[in-house]
Each structure stands twice: as structure tokens, then as C-alpha cells.
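Homework help thread (please don't just give me the answer)

Our assignment gives two proteins as sequence + C-alpha cell strings and asks us to describe the second one. The first is just a warm-up. Here they are:
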Amino acid sequence: MCVSAALRTAAGAEFLGAATESMTVLAGVLSIIQPDLYDVGMAGLSRLWADPSVVPTPVVLRDVLALWSTPFNGVSVISNRSTPLHRDCNSRKEWMDMLVALGMYNLGNLTVPGVGIEFVYNPGTVVGILGKVLQHGAECDGERACLAFYMRDKVQERLGLRVPTYHGV
């Protein structure tokens, strides 16, 4: 377990500072749509703050945690490309991922063929999805970025946190 190289830079700190409000809103959404996952994510942040020595760069971890404002412990940035149909591998099948569409374009779409749904996926759209279970893909024309927030299973295990499971039908 380590702090991402991208977050160890001044640009990483600037990004986290600029995204604080948006990441806090995503945390609020997660607390509503999957409260167990929100709780375990927040517990993970508390444990990391209490004992940053679990990573090789504890001082850097503290600096990042001071700016990190979401219970998710992972984020990927997808920039200026369509995303072919896929399933995500970083999370557990029971855990929601949050996708945030950003950019300057119109007519974006997010397809989830297993349930026969296609969403309008224009800038500002936020989607909670069981990304490991549901195959999904996105397309648009124009400048685009997607922020994909997720929980890494290995982080939860390493911190000794209980693993929330899906309680649905």
C-alpha cells in the first residue's frame, strides 16, 4: 500500500484542493446509496490518519489525507477517449463505484448492456454503479474526462476493516 505518485506532486495537491467540494458531495451521495461502504471508507481514513506508518511515506500520506475529502481510497482519471465495454477490477462486486463526467462536449452516453440501459452522460453527470458486476462503456465527441472513484479491496484488508457486502435481493 502506498500513496500514488501523482498525488505526491504539487499538481496532485492542487487537484485535491480544487476538488474538495466535489469530492465531499460524492461522499454524501455514497453515504445515501451505500452507507456501509461509506462507513468503512471513513473508518479507513481514520485508521490511516491515526497510523500513517502503514505506508513507506507516512509524511506524504498525512499531507494527502489533509486534502482528501472522500471515503473512496482510489480514483482513476480517464481523459479524452471513449471507454469500451468493460468491468472494473479494482473493487469488490458488492461495492459501488462513482463515475463523474467532466469536459466540453454534448451527446455523451454511458451504456450498461446487461440491464439494457443507456444514460445521457454529459459533463456534470454522476453515476453510482456496481462496476465489477455490470459491464459498461462510455462514448462522446469532444474534450472529456471521467473521474472513477472506487474502493480498493486490498486497502480495506490491510487496515483490518470489515468488508461491507451487498444486502439486496
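The one we have to describe:
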Amino acid sequence: MAKTLRTSGDYTVKAGAGYDSGSGSNTIRLDARYIRIPGDLTVEGTQTVIDSQTLSVEDQFIEVNRNNSTAGTEDSGIFFNQGSSNNQILYYDADQSEFVIGSTTHNATVSSITNITPGKIRLADPVESDHAATKSYVDAQVVAGAGISSFDIVGEDSTGLTVNDGDDITITGGTNMNVVVTDGPGTITLSLDPDLSNITSITSNASNGNLELVANGTGTIVVNDVLTFSGAATTPTASTVTKLYNKTAAGGGTGLYFINSNISSGTEGELISKKKATALAIALG
């Protein structure tokens, strides 16, 4: 026989001290095959446990992290309990502004996900351009040649060429440059040839900087040809190293001068030609 209990105001059923006291421990049990609440249901406790095999929700959308009032700073998502194994989780990572799926050692009581092992997700082959693609779909497209069919290689001098499917790219070093290509993963190494040839000019790129030629160990700098000195406009500053330079010939008859602060207090001297040296030797007896 159905019964209806109606009141004109609020109605409270309390067992023992009740929840509001903070010390209540009693339970009110509604024991029936079906319990229907036609109005809104608000649960103000800190824990809600639904012990059922099937949960059916009529709402179109489910909201999690309901009381969040900050702007995009809290992680939130769904945990999947895996018993003694790590939990699986689908959540929004607020710090990275991205969705993540995987496994974690956390449980659903945490406020932030600090460890995650990305998991696999199974997808159907894409239909629209903005659909996520499966590995098999991408592989098939590459094999079928539906991806990049050609591309251009352009040098710094604006010359270029077009590379098509099946073309080989040969990289040559040219004069004084060696090219080596190794297998898996492919590596291209460019190295300067130790024996340079066909070099017409070497210029230092440092403002007023020196250009140094340094031999290895006890080796020496060898010039196997004519060494030409350009004319110097002025006499350079003396230093502890010997400087050779060319100026207008004077008493030495060579025009090749040297200067060193440790020789004659840095006074400029001219190398004497064989003819001048012979004439001086005869004159001095």
C-alpha cells in the first residue's frame, strides 16, 4: 500500500548526532528494489561511492573538477582502477595545455599528475584532414607516394635543383673537401682535406687581426716557391719577433728590410745583396 508523507516546509531525517555535528557515525538506509528521486539531488559530503555494475547517466555532458575557480591551472580527468597494477588515466594536463592518456602510480585523490607513462590508443583510419592518423595509414601513404613527391634544394648562390621520388642526392666536397656517408642512422660528414690545393687567397676575418701559420711540433713552415713581399708604406713597430718587409732599396741594394727590438735596439736594417757585399769586401780590403 503506497504512502505519502508531505510537509509544508523542509523535512529533516537525522540519525544520532548527524553529519553537521562533525561527529555523527550513524547510518540511514533506504532499503527498496528501486529508489527514485524526481527532484534534484545534492550530496554535500566529501566522498560519494556508487556500488553498482552499470551506471547510466541521462545527461549529455559530465562535468569534473566542478568547484575549480582558477583559470586553466588544475589537472583533471578520469581514473581507471586496475587493481594491483598502476592506474590508467585520461586527463587534461593544465601545465602543457594538452590531453594525455597513459598509466600512473597516482590514485584519484591527487590534485596534480606528476608522473605518467604514455599509453597506446587505437584509432580508425582517418577520413577528414583533421582526424588523427594511424601508423598503418601513414606507412601506406608513404609507400604509395601520396606524401612528398618532390622537393627543391637551393644553394646560397640561389642555384638549385628539384629532387623527385627515386632520385639519389650526391654530395661532393669539391676542392679540399671530403664527404663521408655512413649507415644507420645516415650521417654525412664534411671534413677539410689536410693537403689544400688551388687556393688563391687566405684572408683573416678579424679586424686588424693576424694570420698565423703554425707547424706541428718541431716541423717548420716551408715555402717551395717564390715568396713575394708587397711594399710597406711605413716602417712597422719593432717587437721581439723579427719582421721582414719590402721598401724602396737603399744601401743594401735589396729593398728587403728587417726589424727586431732585440737587434740594434729595434733599428731598421736592410739585407745586403751579393753584389753589394762583394763590393764592400773589396773596398774594405
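TA reply:
I won't write it for you, but here's a hint about the kind of observation we're looking for: The chain has a mean pLDDT of 86.
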